[in-house]
Write a structure and sequence with these properties.
mainly alpha; 74% helix; 8 helices
Length: 154
């Protein structure tokens, strides 16, 4: 699982667009989170606003290194551990990604093209898969022996 240089450039370009108003982006993200049935305890809007610069730096650093996934895994694991302290569930990971996409659509407006959306969805699938694998020992890959066994049993 790796990201292409083209997709990485699109992601970096899109966060550069929201950087000047990243505080507003975090407020929108918080509003989007309220619309989802999160199980975890999510920080207040004020807490998120206080940390908006750190959130931006974390996002930029992660995207910058997505082409070298092994170098960014410890960083993603660190943030996954912080999320798990808030009672994060497997379903919450999906909801966080959905809320993030919704906030991006709002803040990027016309810049949120189908290609940008595809790049973000791919990057978030990577994040989702890494976090779920790390915290919940799950995988989105079906083992061949399980697949063959299911076919034999049907």
């Amino acid at each position: 699982m790796s990201i292409s240089a083209h997709h990485q450039k699109m992601l970096l370009r899109s966060i550069a667009i929201i950087k000047p108003n990243f505080h507003c982006f975090t407020v929108t993200f918080h509003v989007q989170l309220k619309r989802h049935a999160l199980t975890m305890q999510w920080p207040s809007s004020d807490e998120i606003s206080e940390k908006s610069y750190l959130l931006y730096c974390s996002l930029e650093r992660t995207i910058t290194h997505l082409d070298r996934l092994l170098s960014v895994l410890p960083f993603i694991h660190y943030h996954a551990n912080n999320l798990s302290k808030s009672g994060l569930t497997c379903q919450d990971v999906d909801l966080l990604c959905d809320a993030f996409i919704a906030a991006l659509k709002i803040h990027l407006g016309r810049e949120f093209t189908p290609n940008i959306e595809q790049a973000w969805r791919y990057a978030l699938r990577m994040f989702n898969s890494i976090v779920k694998s790390y915290l919940f020992n799950t995988s989105n890959i079906v083992a061949i022996n399980k697949s063959v066994q299911q076919q034999v049993n049907s």
